[in-house]
Amino acid sequence: MQHLMRDKVVIVTGAGSPAGIGLATAKAFAAAGARVAITDVAEGSAPRRARDIGDEVRGYTCDVTDRAACEALAEEVLDAWGRIDVLVNNAGITQSRKVMDIARADYDLLMDVNLRGALHMSQAVIPAMAARGSGSIVCIASVAAQRGGGFVGGSHYAASKGGVLGLVKGMARELGPQGIRVNAVNPGVIITDMNSRAFDEARRRQIVESIPLGRFGRPEDVAGVCLFLGSDLSAYMTGSEIDVNGGIHIH
């Protein structure tokens, strides 16, 4: 497994949280032999996490809502390592609002980070991938996009992640002839920094009882699927979405 991604260069966005999907994904790629660039909008958080993982991991501060910042990041990675093979669009936020309470600022914020951020970062790496004739883009969507929310996040969160699924399919269709694969991952209820305090004990028991596998998901559960989609093990997959939800939403 340590040679699965040898000589590959991977970017993972939103990887500054110590108990998040992004950091778990970065660790999985690093363990498979990749050189990994991790990003986060919080100043200094990604460089700190990178130092904890290993010598072949570098951390950068990047706001994915800023296309110029995304392009500058891609250039830094290319200057450092000469190539970009995989992008994992993980940066995202959630927000709980009833539909009548969603303000324009709330809607714009979630769309900017969750959907426009995925577009910006993809646009930043596509030229380098196209020049090599290969690449893999993995976008983290959500079970909320499939079932209209219902756990954490309001309708605008579900809409932003539904947009991610549409973006993935559109990019996969357009970029396939250039050798670039684009796929999505739909996590279910994964306990991370973002939602660890979202449920009281009664609600936690209620949700777990509805999950066929009998537990909440862990960031590592999603990371393994991202590694699969980024590697040649999934070489004939594009425009696909993989559910990582323990069976809470079977469709």
UniProtKB/TrEMBL annotation:
InterPro entries: NAD(P)-bd_dom_sf, Sc_DH/Rdtase_CS, SDR_fam. PANTHER family: BLL7886 PROTEIN, SHORT-CHAIN DEHYDROGENASES/REDUCTASES FAMILY MEMBER. It comes from the Bacteria. Gene3D superfamilies: NAD(P)-binding Rossmann-like Domain (3.40.50.720). This is NAD(P)-dependent dehydrogenase (Short-subunit alcohol dehydrogenase family). Belongs to the short-chain dehydrogenases/reductases (SDR) family.
